[in-house]
Amino acid sequence: MIKKTTRHVIGILTTEDASKTDQRLKSALHKYPRPILFKRPGDPLSDFAMQFETIEVADEAAANQVVRERFKGPIPFLEQTVPVPAPKADSPPEKLRVGFILHGLAFGGISRVILNMLEAPVSHGLEWAGVAIHSLNHLDQDVTRKISRYCPVYSVQESEHTLQSDNPYQAVIDQADVIYMTGFVDPIPLLDQTEFDGKPVILSAHGQCDFSRNQIETISQYGGKKIYLAVSQSAVNSYPEQLRDQVKVIYNGINYSRCAPLLDRKAVRESWGIDEETTAVGYLGRLAHDKNPLAAAQAVAELGDGYHAVYIGNGYAQEKLRFEIRGLCGDRCTILDKTEEIGSQLAALDCLVLASPLEGGPMIVSEAWLAGCPVVSTPVGMIPELEDMHGKLTHSLPHNYSLDHLVEQVRIATAGHSQITEWAHEVAWQTFNPSRMVVEFEQAIRDGLQENPVLIDERIRVGFAIGSCSMGGVSRGIITLLDQGCPGLQWSGVAIEGPGHFDPDTARSILKHCPIYAGTDHPNYQGLVTIVPNQYEQLVSRSDVVKLWGTIQTRPDMDQVDWNRVTVITASHGQCDWTRRNIETSLKYGSRHLLMSVSDAGRNCFPEQLRDQVNVIYNGLDFKRSMAQLSRHELREEWNVDEEAALVAYIGRFELTGKNPLAAAQAVNQLGEKYHAVYVGEGVNRDEVIQSVREITENRCTLLPRTEDIGSILAAVDCIVLASPSEGCPQIMMEAFAAQCPVVSTRVGFLPEFEPEFGKLTYEVPFDPSPADLAAAVKRAVLDKDDLTGKACAVALQKFNPRKYARDFEDMVRNGTVVTL
């Protein structure tokens, strides 16, 4: 959350006509993706308008007062925006007319992508000149009808929704500034006779197979300047190697409304002839051999009674494949033609199976994720790259999967509520926005049309000066930021004070992105650190902005550096006296500062006169860490703990001052033999903490070193205890929320900010709790049947989104208010 950043914000006053308000919104969205509607009394809003932030005001003067209070400065209003100057003679026109030349509009992903592009609410700088198709074979009349609402569809033969033209390609080219071509693997005589007039051609790789490679080669022969696109990073490989660094990846946008169920799940399943107790395993898409659609039927055949296959789709091989499906499943299958009611079908399924060997950007997977339907899939299309970024999104099959593996993954996927499915829904919502697709599509065209593209790296260089390279909340936040990446920022390095608590795993994670500097060598570094005369001078000389954290007193090596060469980010990661001293020290270095805090309460650690200049940015969470790699049963067996025992965990730094790590042990002592303590971590008081835990619990404890597999620990325990007197944005609480592990906690960090909006998220104990207080809260956490953990997980997904964290950080660096001291 950044309260004052206004680069993407515009105020829009509503009108008495909802359609005019919509027009105002759509005209602004291209430049200002965060519009705020100031709604006057009685002004109606469309469904489209209601998805944006709305503030009710009496009039324009009241709207301006709201702006002054919220943003501490002006924001543009739509009526005040400066008219766009006339384009230069050598610039692309303000409105680019895009024409499409396709092999056909058969049922499938490419046809749907084109339609989604045309239907997207934002097409600010684009107009659609028309669609030319080579063949009416397998024409999807429904998609063609919908496309014809936005632009003409031309073909050699006339049909219900197409216009006849002797040369449909020429008809489109004559009306277009740039041509999008796909689907041609062989030269077409009529296309060879068409005059492109040197107009630019957009090539797009929709797959990673020979067909995709061949169509790239064929289409490259037509038109003038080329613009290269792909629907996933894996699809980029369809291009010749020398072109791949010129390819822009744009994920397919999906029509969100298609993914919403319009029919009741029970009614849909009754139409399939099954009840709620039956497990429905689905395949939705083209019935073609290259898609390996029989996988769902094979799984159902092997799983036996209680499982039912559902096939929805058509294709060239439908007759043969439908016969084979019935042969495998008998009467335990439902086979239907394609439908537009995709949301209702996905809501009625228990999982979707996509076991094809190759895909580019499988739209049905995106739609299933958004609809909340579990997906069993091979690692195809955008799935591997999105799972690298976000963690597990599917129940995965290797390309050479066995039937046993397929059956096991279907069984797991259909076992009930899944964190994987929830997170996949969140990722889909962010990634496959159709308006985002169109905006990126337009930007790719305009970038590609530049005669002299800007090659200068305009990224801002950002470095980090931290106390040590140890694993803790601050280090984890930096790693999450580095892993997410910020398009407008370049990571220049990390400078550390010394070898104290040096963690090689943390260092390796940082080194994926930038070097680590220190002033003197040490055996702890294991060759992972670059040794320089002055690590701070090295960092400042390579940076435009440096985040300075972890130092509570000035240092001679820092005093030798001219910090006025950079803007210093001074940050509050806590709410205690140590944080205040850290901020006081940081403000002594350099004259230009960006101020940030990981919680709203953390702003109070800054001097009073600076607090309204502090950007509040909640830490992003690497949700992969909250996903279990080992089962609850496996870990308990490894720890030699009974399955019926209640495990109470402390996970974090072993520090007696400030963390209160013995609280979990005290609760276990009070609750008796059925309770067992689990301690995971390290720290300055490690030996003392371990000895005390053993004594307090009478050895009913398991003691473990710090681990990266935090998700498995959280899945195996029954609750965690965080009873510290002060926290900023506690990492373990964030991870426990995401893992749906109950949390016993003092009211620290972000809790006072979130709970007024969402209600209680933890089982609260007072500050400095007694053993009895702790025992009562732990017992409630272990036995409570309320959906507190489900609510906490939903809050984590909303508030700790790692991509939003990275965007907000970049927004602060590029556009935040710089305080001059």
Oligomer: single chain
For the sheet with most strands, the description reads:
9 strands, mixed
Mean pLDDT metric: 87
Please report which band the strand proportion falls in: under 5%, 5-15%, 15-25%, 25-35%, 35-45% or over 45%.
15-25%
Low-confidence stretches: 1-7, 79-90, 452-456
Structural class estimated from helices and strands = alpha/beta
Shape: globular
Report the span from N to C terminus.
Answer: 25 Å
Helical content stands at 25-40%
DSSP helix count? Answer: 31
- Radius of gyration, taken over Cα atoms and rounded to an integer in Å: 29 Å
The tally of beta strands, per DSSP, is: 32
Written account of the structure:
The chain starts with 8 loop residues before the first strand and ends with a strand. It has 31 helices and 32 strands. It has 821 residues and is an alpha/beta fold. Helix 13 (383-390) links the parallel strand 16 and strand 17 (395-396).
Secondary-structure map:
Blueprint (H helix, E strand, L loop, with lengths): L8 E5 L4 H12 L4 E6 L13 E4 L3 H12 L24 E7 L6 H11 L6 E8 L7 H7 L5 E3 L7 E2 L3 H6 L4 E5 L6 H4 L8 E5 L4 H10 L6 E5 L17 E2 L15 H8 L6 E6 L9 H10 L3 E6 L5 H12 L3 E4 L5 H7 L2 E4 L8 H9 L3 E3 L5 H8 L4 E2 L6 H11 L5 H13 L2 H16 L10 E7 L6 H12 L4 E8 L7 H8 L4 E3 L11 E2 L3 H7 L3 E4 L7 H4 L7 E6 L4 H10 L5 E6 L17 E2 L15 H8 L6 E8 L2 H4 L3 H9 L3 E8 L3 H12 L3 E4 L5 H7 L2 E4 L8 H9 L3 E3 L5 H8 L4 E2 L6 H13 L4 H12 L2 H14 L3 E2 L1
Parallel strand pairs: 1-2, 2-3, 4-5, 4-8, 5-6, 6-7, 8-9, 9-10, 10-11, 12-13, 12-15, 13-14, 15-16, 16-17, 18-19, 18-22, 19-20, 20-21, 22-23, 23-24, 24-25, 26-27, 26-29, 27-28, 29-30, 30-31
Antiparallel strand pairs: 24-32
Helix pairs in contact: 3-4, 8-11, 9-10, 9-14, 12-15, 22-26, 24-25, 24-29, 27-30
